[in-house]
Structure formats: C-alpha cells, structure tokens
Amino acid sequence: MEQEFASTLLENAVNEFAKLPGIGRKTALRLVLNLLKRDAGEAELLGEAIIKLRREIQYCKVCHNISETAVCPICANPSRDASTVCVVENVKDVMSIENTHQHHGLYHVLGGLISPMDGIGPQDIEIDSLVERVAQGGIKEVILALSATMEGDTTNFYIFRRLAPYPDVKITMLARGVSVGNEIEYTDELTLGRSILNRTLFSDTFAKET
Known about the structure:
Blueprint: H1 8-17, H2 25-37, H3 40-56, E1 58-59, E2 66-67, H4 73-76, E3 81-88, H5 91-98, E4 105-109, H6 128-135, E5 141-144, H7 150-162, E6 170-173, H8 189-197, E7 200-201, H9 202-209
Parallel strand pairs: 3-4, 3-5, 5-6
Antiparallel strand pairs: 1-2, 6-7
Helix pairs in contact: 1-2
C-alpha cells in the first residue's frame, strides 16, 4: 500500500531519494527525516555539493575516469607507467585497484561490459577508444581487470581479438585469485593486489580453457 504524506515537499523529497539504487521508500523517508532534524546549513551544504558535483564533474578524455579536468590526475601524472594500461569496467574498479597500491600504470574505463542479454554490445562501451590508444603506440601491456563473470569473460575475449593486430602488446589478465562470479569492487584489497602482481598472459589462460 502506497504511503501517504502530509506534506507534498516531504513526499517529493522521498520520491527523489527513492530513485537512488538500493534505496527503498522506507529508507528514503528515514534519510529525509534525518535531514530535517539537522541544521539548515548542513542540508544546504549537501545540496550544494550534489549540484556542484553534477555540474562540474567530467570524464577524462584519455581513460574515461571521472575527473574535474579534461585529463584526470592519474593520466596527467608523469610518474605513472604510461606503457601499462589496466582495463576496468567502471570508476569504482579504479578506486579498488588504486587502494591496493600494486598498479602503477594507467587505466581505461569501459563504462560497462558486453552483455547481449541486456542489449549491451561492444559499440556501447569504450572499446574503440582503447584500440585507438593502443594503435597510437607506446603501450606495451594491457591488463584485463574485469569481473570474473560471463560478461567479463566475454568482454575480455572480444578485447583480446580486437588487439590481435598489435602482437607487440602483451595482453594479461588478473590471476584467478579473484573468484569466478566475483566483481572487482567486492574483492578484498589483499586478494586483488596479489591478482594484479600474479597476472597471467590472456592467451595462456584461453588455451587452457579450450
């Protein structure tokens, strides 16, 4: 049964919060009521932070990571190893891998995984721009750090095939310390760090499976 609200303002706020992933209407109501108990200045700061985030955040033109500038701090950092590019599904995976302190190269954020069941094809994610980066030269290794799921494996194989014309580029993938079915963001830092350090050639892994 739909809950009735005495205030239209309250109802509108609850409806907006409830649009967020993982937030039901009960949780949304609890959050809104909590905001009402706080000092008005705190609520204004929250609102301003959200508006500023939405208006000013952008995506790095090189790797597609979130950034406040055209090129993100990671890509712009001269101390990073520009010859190694770690391919991830989303921004959260960049954060997870950065927390391991085991990857010192650059990233490439796909923005999703190939999933025919969901109508997501190679053209819907940032694979062409990855191939363009490799074609420009200077990249010696591409690390496939995608989730150990059917969608992740499908995307890995597609990228491997697309990069086949560049035999001098080593294509590796995370060691299977990341359990099958696991998503990168839910893997603990120690396991993820070891998986990066012990990465294997994708061609060797593919040969074993076939």
